[in-house]
UniProtKB/TrEMBL annotation:
Stated family: Belongs to the SLC26A/SulP transporter (TC 2.A.53) family.
Ranges for domain STAS: 538-697
Gene source species: Pundamilia nyererei
Residues annotated as signal peptide: none
CDD domains the UniProt entry points to: STAS_SulP_like_sulfate_transporter (cd07042)
Predominant localisation class: membrane
Listed InterPro entries: S04_transporter_CS, SLC26A/SulP_dom, SLC26A/SulP_fam, STAS_dom, STAS_dom_sf
Localization (cell): Apical cell membrane
Membrane-traversing stretches: 69-91, 188-207, 352-370, 390-411, 423-441, 485-510
Keywords on record: Cell membrane, Glycoprotein, Membrane, Phosphoprotein, Transmembrane, Transmembrane helix, Transport
Membrane topology: Multi-pass membrane protein
Protein origin, superkingdom: Eukaryota
GO terms for cellular component: apical plasma membrane
Protein name in UniProt: Sulfate transporter
Length: 713
């Protein structure tokens, strides 16, 4: 009998199938020394490797296959360059600077990315979203400096007249500010602000690359970025709407640009310039007919519709004298050649130091995402850190040459891809096309109406604005993503672009935290006679194990959802240990009182010292198995929750076992002494599978019952 009792006391152990490897980590000091030694080692191969890493063109250009690549690169480069010219001029309306600076930006960005980029297909240059964000900063600072935002470019026109007629006309009472030891007018001050923001954005991007901070982009979720881009596109549409109607309305400063601008447009609708309105209607009807989409199977290359519209509109404006006869706003004089390089206005940077942060992050995020997307499509790899360096220097170096912030652009990248682009030689060809315009053809765009440029910008927003049609599908696929998209879009459009980005990031992170605070929980049942266990609510024909509750929590367990975890567990198993223990103590007290009264009535003298066995309610289960397969990690609060569960349920006679823990989770539990001193209880608390935990629980319960029966006998 004693031998049987001894056998029952120790249920047979379940054999350990897995054994952890002993990892020997090198001391941090030795690792640091080896890295420093490797970093400072100087040799010819290392110098060559460093230079080729910094300038990837040194790796692929010597291997350039002329016969296979040159035709596609030349064609795609020419087509993108032809598309780039009118867009570069048009986006200067958004940036609040003269058209020549858009051409400078496109020229330098293409050359620098050709040297430093790792993507073969990305087109880097002027981008509508970056231009809008630059323009908001420029208009704000120009307004603060005392310039009139509604005034037309009178100074530029007078200069052109002086150059043409050889006379010296002057404009009185022209407001100027002193900058870097010289008097600066409105246009000079505007480009100085744009250059200062661009320089800072580039510095931020290079610093992010040096300190390996590319992970920042992971917080920009795809729904948030889509919503932000759509909201910004709606803002761009609003800002450009006044040019379609020929209204001279200054850009609103502050929050609520979309609402205030539309209110001003409708308030001044009676001042519409019919010439601009008719021109806009004609241009949009031509640009939006999507001839290319209709005949794309027959066309060997995309039609440069924008350039055709610009050329036709420029000729019509010049020979029809639309500016002088009908008061239509035109681009004005665009000089040829290059301006001498100039240092950015360092005195202005303190005013825009914060404005450059969202520019840097968004520019990098769009560039890297496009690079990785086309790299996957064509089967090669890109280096995100090098991409950050490349786009950073695409901003720093051109800022010395009167350029503003650049980024990768989806539309032009898709054109490059569809026209046979093979390498970044196509960017060099695009830069040569822009160079020809800068050297010879720029003055021909003087008579180009601003409403035509606005039409080009608005039509280019079709892709982003079509995202509104995808909202129902987003809602059906994921309500959380759809809500993030709507919040980011609404905040960007109704408040401001910068705050819209911040609101989108914060809200998407809050949504993630909310999902981890209220994750799906479930009780598991067994699949027939197999060793598999699944959700009882989700699957049919499952059998709950006898007197064992298996609980699954599908989220990391940390300080923010610890209480949710405990409440969900108590609700699922139907027993909260604190209340159960309280009931037991009350029952014990009642039993003691009843025993004392009975003893007194019988005349027994025990002074109330009566041995009363603890009254315990028979529970439906004796063990809780926590399926940790969906818990990636826990923090100290989660560890404390596990320790508390084991202790509290042990007080009411219920065991708590863990199953399917990953190695990171096990390490945290070991460090927190969850398995006792020297992990002595690990074999009885931790199991590799749910089934192993259930088998152990039933054996332990059977042993306990056998021991209890023997003691009663």
């Amino acid at each position: 009998m004693e031998e049987a009792a001894n056998t029952a006391e120790t249920p047979p152990a379940i054999p350990i199938l897995l054994e952890r490897q002993v990892r020997q980590r090198k001391p941090a000091v030795s690792v640091l020394k080896s890295k420093l030694k490797q970093a400072v080692t100087c040799s010819v191969p290392r110098i060559r490797s460093t230079l080729s890493g910094f300038f990837p063109v040194m790796r692929w250009l010597p291997k350039y296959n002329i016969k296979e690549y040159v035709w596609g690169d030349v064609m795609s480069g020419m087509i993108v360059g032809i598309i780039l010219v009118p867009q570069a001029i048009a986006y200067c309306l958004l940036a609040g600077v003269e058209p020549i600076y858009g051409l400078y930006t496109s020229f330098y960005a293409n050359i620098i990315y050709f040297l430093m980029g790792t993507s073969r297909h990305v087109s880097v240059g002027i981008f509508s979203l970056m231009s809008l964000m630059i323009g908001q900063v420029v208009d704000r600072e120009v307004f603060k400096a005392g310039f009139d935002l509604s005034e037309d470019s009178a100074v530029s026109n007078i200069d052109v007249l002086n150059d043409t007629l050889g006379i010296n006309l002057t404009v009185t009472k022209v407001h100027t500010v002193e900058l870097m030891g010289m008097q600066c007018g409105k246009e000079c001050y505007a480009i100085s602000i744009a250059v200062a923001v661009t320089f800072l954005a580039g510095v931020y991007q290079v610093l992010m690359a040096v300190f390996r901070l590319g992970f920042v982009s992971v917080y920009l979720s795809a729904p948030m970025l889509d919503g932000f881009a759509t909201g910004a596109s709606f803002t761009i549409l609003t800002v450009q709407a006044k040019y379609l109607l020929g209204l001279k309305i200054p850009r609103h400063q502050g929050y609520g640009t979309v609402v205030v601008t539309w209110f001003n447009i409708f308030s001044n609708i009676h001042k519409t310039n019919l010439c601009d309105l008719i021109t806009s209607a004609i241009c949009i009807s031509i640009l939006a007919k999507e001839i290319q989409e209709r005949y794309k199977d027959r066309l060997k290359m995309p039609l440069p519709t924008e350039l055709v519209v610009v050329a036709g509109a420029t000729l019509a404006s010049h020979f029809g004298e639309l500016n002088s006869r009908y008061g239509s706003s035109v681009s004005g004089h665009i000089p040829t050649g290059f301006m001498p390089p100039q240092l950015p206005g360092f005195s202005l940077m303190s005013r825009v130091v914060l404005d450059a942060i969202p520019l840097a992050v968004i520019s990098f995020a769009f560039t890297v995402s496009l690079s990785e997307m086309f790299a996957k499509k064509h089967g090669y790899t890109v280096r995100p850190n090098q991409e950050m360096l490349a786009i950073g220097f695409c901003n720093i170096i051109p800022s010395f040459f009167h350029s503003f912030t650049t980024s990768a652009a989806l539309a032009k990248t898709m054109v490059k891809d569809s026209t046979g682009c093979k390498t970044q030689v196509s960017s060099l060809i695009s830069a040569l096309v822009v160079l020809l315009v800068l050297l010879f053809f720029a003055p021909f765009f003087q008579a180009l109406q601003k409403c035509v440029l606005a039409c080009i910008i608005i039509v280019s927003l079709r892709g982003a604005l079509r995202k509104f049609r995808d909202v129902p599908a987003k809602w059906r696929a994921s309500r959380n993503d759809a809500i993030v998209w709507l919040v980011a879009m609404s905040a960007t459009a109704l408040i401001s672009v910068e705050l819209g980005l911040l609101v989108g990031i914060i809200f998407s992170m809050i949504c993630f935290i909310f999902r981890t605070q209220n994750p799906k929980v479930s009780l598991l049942g067994r699949v027939d006679d197999t060793d598999f266990y699944e959700d009882l609510e989700e699957y049919k024909n499952l059998v709950a194990p006898s007197r064992v509750q298996i609980f699954r929590f599908q989220a990391p367990l940390y300080y923010a959802n610890k209480e949710s975890f405990l409440k969900s567990l108590y609700k699922a198993v139907g027993v909260e240990p604190f209340f159960e223990l309280t009931k037991m103590k009350k029952a014990e007290k009642k039993a003691k009182d009843a025993s004392a009264k009975q003893a007194k009535a019988n005349g027994e003298k025990n002074n109330g010292d009566v041995v009363v066995r603890l009254v315990q309610r028979e529970l439906e289960f004796h063990t809780i198995v926590l399926d940790c397969s969906a818990i990636p990690f826990i923090d100290s609060a989660g560890l404390a929750a596990f320790l508390g569960l084991v202790k509290e349920y042990k007080g009411i006679g219920v065991s708590v076992l863990l199953a399917c823990c990953n190695t990171s989770l096990i390490d945290t539990l070991q460090k927190g002494k969850f398995f006792g001193k020297n992990d002595e209880d690990m074999g009885s608390l931790l199991f590799h599978t749910v089934h192993a935990a259930v088998v152990h629980a039933n054996r332990a319960a059977a042993a306990t019952e056998s021991r209890s029966e023997d003691s009663e006998v």
